UniProtKB/TrEMBL annotation:
Signal peptide positions (record): 1-21
Protein known as: Calx-beta domain-containing protein
Keywords for this protein: Signal
Upper lineage: Bacteria, Pseudomonadati, Bacteroidota, Cytophagia, Cytophagales
Keyword field contains Signal: yes
NADP in keyword set: no
InterPro entries: CalX-like_sf
Length: 366
């Protein structure tokens, strides 16, 4: 038993001596790898034009490292600054198989096989069908931005031309394209650019009008695997149909509930609103069912005018004191918006067009 304890103490002491000796060189790294070759850590599959880091395991600042890369195409290796040569960045420009090799000043070597793949840099439209509205311009956006995208990445500067093909929407009449010479430019690394569309407002009610944007020649791009290409025909991303819709404006009653009870005489106001001001007067016609014969309670006489530039109006009812007298029957007035009259044909009735006013007489005292 004593011999066993003595062996344990000696072994533990040797381990401690090894650790303390290694700590004396603060910049050195302890390596548990075999001493006959160098091991490289890093991915064995990378992409073209994708800088990727590799490092040698068990490095020491007391040694110098020399890195090289060979293979099926153009590739480069560069040391990462401030890392004593153990870290490098590899950049391959072509698809293929490459061997990254490192040698140390003490005569050790190591290597790793790297497979380099490519990614599809396809250019296409952001959406094959897009709906826009005349009102988008008037609401404050000077231009509408339709995206043209490059998939995955864009290594070098890219430029592509596009064509605008009129349909039921006519350029210059329904819209304008603001890009100079119908060309889009992408800086290196930029994967999205925009066709700038300015819609033109009118006051005519029309069906959806359409035009097409078709991508043309790629005027500028990188070489080889850094080049941007059109997608195969099967992907069908080379053109888009743009639909322009009317900027429909709506008139609605502004009420909290479908009906309200009234138990006081005097003027009662029912608000209505146009969701966006227009440059023409808007006349809203309405009807009231349930009024007693001969009553002149409808003070706005069946129509309300929302004046040009305004968005609100009100129906005025004069609640007759006689309706509230003890013993009178409950009176129900059904109000209905019926029609809109305006030179702007795009103004119409909305969804909230009905309201009920229930006049409740006083109850008899018991």
């Amino acid at each position: 038993m004593k011999n066993y304890k003595l062996f344990f103490k000696l072994s533990f002491g040797l381990v401690l001596a090894f650790v303390f000796a290694a700590c004396e060189g603060e910049e050195e790294t302890i390596s548990l790898t075999p001493g006959t070759s160098l091991l490289i850590s890093g991915s064995d599959e990378i992409l073209t034009y994708d800088p990727t880091r590799y490092f040698v395991r068990g490095h020491s600042i007391d040694e110098e490292y020399t890195w090289t890369i060979t293979g099926d195409g153009e590739a480069s290796v560069s040391e990462v600054e401030g890392r004593y040569g153990e870290y490098v960045s590899v950049l391959a420009e072509e698809v293929g198989t490459y061997t990254l090799t490192v040698s140390s000043s003490n005569g050790l070597d190591g290597s790793i096989i790297i497979e380099v793949e490519d990614v599809n840099e396809f250019i296409g439209v952001g959406s094959d069908t897009t709906y826009i509205y005349e009102e988008d311009y008037l609401s404050g956006a000077d231009t509408l931005f339709f995206p043209i995208t490059i998939s995955e990445r864009n290594v070098d500067s890219t430029a592509v031309e596009f064509e605008v093909i009129n349909g039921t929407a006519i350029e210059g009449q329904d819209f304008e394209i603001l890009n100079k010479n119908n060309v889009l430019g992408f800086s290196a690394g930029q994967t999205e650019a925009y066709v700038k569309i300015l819609t033109k407002d009118n006051i005519t009610a029309e069906a959806d009008r359409s035009f097409r944007i078709v991508l043309g020649d790629i005027l500028l791009t990188g070489d080889g695997t850094s080049a941007v290409n059109h997608a195969p025909d099967s992907m069908n991303i080379g053109q888009a149909v743009i639909y322009i819709r009317d900027d429909v404006k709506t008139v609605n009653l502004i009420v909290d509930f479908a009906e309200v009870e009234v138990d006081e005489a005097g003027n009662f106001f029912i608000n209505l609103a146009l969701n966006r001001a227009v440059e023409e007067d808007v006349i809203v016609e309405y009807s009231i069912a349930g009024l007693p014969l001969g009553s002149n309670a409808d003070k706005t006489n069946g129509s309300v005018t929302i004046f040009a530039g305004s968005t609100s109006g009100e129906i005025v009812l004069d609640i007759d004191p006689a309706w509230l007298e003890v013993g009178e029957d409950e009176l129900v007035l059904d109000i209905q918006l019926d029609d809109v009259i305006s030179d702007d044909e795009e103004v119409t009735l909305g969804q909230t067009t009905e309201f009920k006013v229930v006049v409740v007489p006083e109850e008899e005292e018991e």
